[in-house]
Amino acid sequence: MDFKKFYLSPEGRVDRKQFWLWLVLPLTAISLLAALVDVATGNYNPELGVGLFSAIFVLVALIRPSSSYIKRFHDRDKSGWWVLIGLIPVIGSIWLLIELGFLKGTPGPNRFSPEVTD
């Protein structure tokens, strides 16, 4: 799977390995780097627990991964609308983590795609 299709298109399916390696790992690394830059430049606000670069990254990171979340739900043979469960405080985040990060997708073809493509 190429970069544009993974990050910009909600079509198709994404398996757990792709989800962790192409989305979670890079987002975690970039958020840690942004936090370090905030501390190094003095932009970190301890009262808010965030700095300028971290805040900008979070705003961008809330929107872009949604297409990857949709594809991961497609791999589980569920509608992409399940992404909205993340809007429920605390429980929604836990649900998304378990559903998208740990549960296996449907084997073989399902109603969203014939199979997971690399």
Please provide a written account of the structure.
It is a single chain. The protein has 118 residues and is mainly alpha-helical. It has one domain (3-102). It is built from 5 helices and 2 strands; from the N terminus they run H-H-E-E-H-H-H. It has helices spanning 3-8, 16-41, 52-63, 66-75, 91-102, and strands at 44-45, 50-51. It has a two-stranded antiparallel sheet with strand order 1-2. Strand 1 and strand 2 form a beta hairpin. Helix 2 (16-41) runs antiparallel to helix 3 (52-63). The longest helix is centred in the first third of the chain and has 26 residues, at 16-41. The protein is elongated, with a radius of gyration of 16 Å.
Could you name the ranges where pLDDT drops below 50 across 5 or more consecutive residues?
Answer: none
Q: Largest sheet at a glance?
A: 2 strands, antiparallel
Work out the number of β strands.
Answer: 2
Q: Can you give the helix content as a percent range?
A: 55-70%
Shape: elongated
Averaged pLDDT: 89
Rg is: 16 Å
In spatial order, strands of the major sheet run: 1-2
